[in-house]
């Protein structure tokens, strides 16, 4: 379907393109989660509990990941979004 | 290379996308191409491959009984000769559960089967539990069945992850198992209308080579009803598409068919609703 009829379609997103975008986001997220070590969720939970003793944050404020930086170094990266009081 | 048979797992993660239909047709197609083939139902407790292959009344012993040595392996193998002299199948147990599948037990069976058959097709159950893990563990190649539908594509991506990490090839030999994508229930008209994911969309997300596209066809249900794998239907588009898959599995390079919407004629355009 090309030509003048595609004119009407062009400004409306098809449901297939919405599906594709949603899939790309979730698949990328799940792939990175799958590549993380098994102890990650527990570590995340425990760190969160410790921080919560001092600062009020919710679980989405904590980001934690292990990245491989070359052959024999991996970096444990912890990011916490703290509210300004 | 030795003359051992090749083990192919047919898997998907999500249920109802066409694993058993595809396993039956791949098995039948390989057998009809002259390869001695056995198809194994790994869906322990929910046996169904026997129905799809039309041999439910010949089941006496099953896979679990063979593993537990309650019968000889060849007693559990059913000759599906109404389809091909080269076609055999092993039914799943209907009364036991997946806990009876042990890695050593499955390995012992596989080692015997690769001596005797050219192809061993493992029909995986849905999900990511033991049955699915066992079905893929000893495979040399994987066929991942996917519908052009959002949850099926996501589950297939998870399965690709497991195939990369939890197979004998990966764990013992450190190799990547060759993976093929088989898209089923494809409707080119809906893709053209923008309400179904296209081949390109699915490829962009999963990124594994395509072994075939099976178009949606009413004959698939018709074939299941009769216990004749759809590949044996020479006139139907789905049957033809499965025949193409067999040729590709055996190394031929042939173009995809039935992936474009049918061009409607003048009257079709005038009167064709939707």
Automatic annotation (TrEMBL), chain A:
Its biological purpose:
Prevents the cell division inhibition by proteins MinC and MinD at internal division sites while permitting inhibition at polar sites. This ensures cell division at the proper site by restricting the formation of a division septum at the midpoint of the long axis of the cell.
**Protein name, as recorded:** Cell division topological specificity factor
Family according to the record: Belongs to the MinE family.
MF terms from GO for this chain are: identical protein binding
Source organism? Nitrincola tapanii
- Superkingdom of this entry's organism? Bacteria
Record key words, sorted: Cell cycle, Cell division
GO terms, biological process: cell division; regulation of division septum assembly
Automatic annotation (TrEMBL), chain B:
Residue ranges of coiled coil:
none
For this protein, the record's SUPFAM superfamilies field holds:
P-loop containing nucleoside triphosphate hydrolases
Plastid: present as a keyword of the record? no
Q: How does it assemble?
A: Interacts with MinC and FtsZ.
What's in the GO CC field? cytoplasmic side of plasma membrane; cytosol
The UniProt record gives the binding positions of ATP as 14-21
Q: Which gene encodes it?
A: minD
Protein's GO biological process: division septum assembly; negative regulation of cell division
Superkingdom of this protein's organism = Bacteria
Q: Any idea what job this protein has? A: ATPase required for the correct placement of the division site. Cell division inhibitors MinC and MinD act in concert to form an inhibitor capable of blocking formation of the polar Z ring septums. Rapidly oscillates between the poles of the cell to destabilize FtsZ filaments that have formed before they mature into polar Z rings.
Keywords attached to this Swiss-Prot or TrEMBL record, sorted alphabetically, are: ATP-binding, Cell cycle, Cell division, Nucleotide-binding, Septation
- Report the GO molecular function annotations: ATP binding; ATP hydrolysis activity
Domain named AAA is located at 6-156
Family per record: Belongs to the ParA family. MinD subfamily.
- Name of the protein: Septum site-determining protein MinD
């Amino acid at each position: 379907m090309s030509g003048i009829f595609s004119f009407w379609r062009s400004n409306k997103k098809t449901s297939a393109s919405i599906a594709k975008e949603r899939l790309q986001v979730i698949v990328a997220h799940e792939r990175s989660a799958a590549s993380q070590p098994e102890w990650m969720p527990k570590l995340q939970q425990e760190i969160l509990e410790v921080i919560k003793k001092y600062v009020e944050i919710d679980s989405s404020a904590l980001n934690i990941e292990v990245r491989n930086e070359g052959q024999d170094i991996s970096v444990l990266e912890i990011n916490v979004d703290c509210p300004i009081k | 290379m030795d003359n051992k048979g090749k083990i192919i797992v047919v898997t998907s993660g999500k249920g109802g996308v066409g694993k058993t239909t595809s396993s039956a047709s791949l098995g039948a197609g390989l057998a009809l191409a002259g390869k001695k083939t056995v198809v194994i139902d790994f869906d322990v407790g929910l046996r169904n491959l026997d129905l799809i292959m039309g041999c439910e009344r010949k089941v006496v012993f099953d896979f679990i009984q063979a593993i537990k040595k309650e019968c000889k392996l060849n007693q559990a193998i059913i000759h599906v000769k109404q389809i091909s002299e080269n076609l055999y199948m092993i039914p799943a147990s209907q009364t036991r559960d997946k806990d009876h599948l042990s890695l050593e037990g499955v390995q012992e069976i596989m080692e015997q089967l690769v001596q005797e058959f050219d192809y061993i097709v493992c029909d995986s159950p849905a999900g990511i539990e033991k049955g699915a893990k066992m079905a893929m563990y000893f495979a040399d190649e994987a066929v991942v069945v996917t519908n052009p539908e959002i949850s099926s594509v996501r589950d297939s991506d998870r399965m690709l992850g497991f195939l990369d990490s939890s197979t004998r090839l990966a764990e013992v030999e450190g190799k990547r198992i060759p993976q093929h994508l088989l898209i089923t229930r494809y409707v080119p008209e809906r893709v053209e209308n923008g309400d179904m994911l296209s081949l390109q969309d699915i490829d962009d997300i999963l990124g594994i080579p395509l072994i075939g596209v099976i178009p949606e066809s009413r004959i698939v249900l018709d074939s299941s009803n009769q216990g004749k794998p759809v590949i044996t239907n020479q006139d139907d588009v789905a049957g033809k598409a499965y025949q193409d898959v067999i040729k590709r599995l055996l190394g031929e390079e042939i173009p995809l068919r039935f992936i474009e919407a049918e061009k409607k004629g003048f009257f079709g355009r005038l009167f064709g609703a939707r």
